[in-house]
Amino acid sequence: MRKLRRFFLVLLILAALLGLAVWDSQTRLVTDEFTVGNSLLPDAFEGFRIVHLSDLHATSFGEGNERLLSAVRDAEPDIICVTGDMVDGPREEEEDYVRTLMTGLTAIAPVYFVSGNHEWAVGWARELFDLLEELGVTVLRNKYVTLERDGARIVLAGVDDPNGLRDQKTPEEVMKDIDETYPGDYVVMLAHRDTELETWSRLGVDLVLCGHAHGGLIRLPFTDGLVAPGQGLFPTWTAGVYEEGGTQMLVSRGFTGSHGCPRLFNNPEIAVAVLGKG
User: Fold this and answer.
1) Predicted TM-score (pTM) of this structure
2) CA dihedral 34, 35, 38, 44 (to 10 degrees)
3) For domain 2-275, which CATH number applies: 3.30.470.20, 3.60.21.10, 3.90.1010.10, 2.40.50.100?
4) Statement: residue 18 has pLDDT above 90
């Protein structure tokens, strides 16, 4: 009888620890910094800080998202980039969420946004883009802007998710425009999906910021996560920096689970890209 009681006590303790780990993995925000860049980066942009947010899915961290906003503020960004899947439901349910979050973020630093697959799936993408522009967010829909610092310049570009309009500009067309207008400039590309590293490398992008993988949902030792949208089991690109042919890709772990599966050992992440000469 004593052995049986001990057995059930151990099970109860393990269940409690697992429950605590699951709760922690949904709620405790972490900030991770990644040094990225290469020799094309102008000296003036060394130390330039980009806060990268992806896959919020209308999740709040504290009243008015204050815990998230506080953590972003503490990261001292020069700009903030949001790479899609910010919303996850009808406009009447989530417009106030967008207003509150973006009003808070734009008060910290300039904000740039590209769409994810969920922006198009929820059915109010165009209205969302208009709302974001109204709130002072720059929406990069297959276009680019330049960022200037102490007389130097880099290019910041963004592409709509493939779930967007059929006749939208292709990544090849966007990069062709950039190469013709600003040849040799350092290019940061915002995209939602994490599976196009080979394409971005072929096109000569220097740094890509993306998400979509939710960090592989369940992160165990010696794995890059167990499952990710578009990659299935044991995905390749889920978190951190990957490199191919001179292109670096920083994948955000995002903030939520996916398709009903919670996160485990995979805290919601504010990723910070710190630019350097490499």
Assistant:
1) 0.94
2) 120
3) 3.60.21.10
4) no
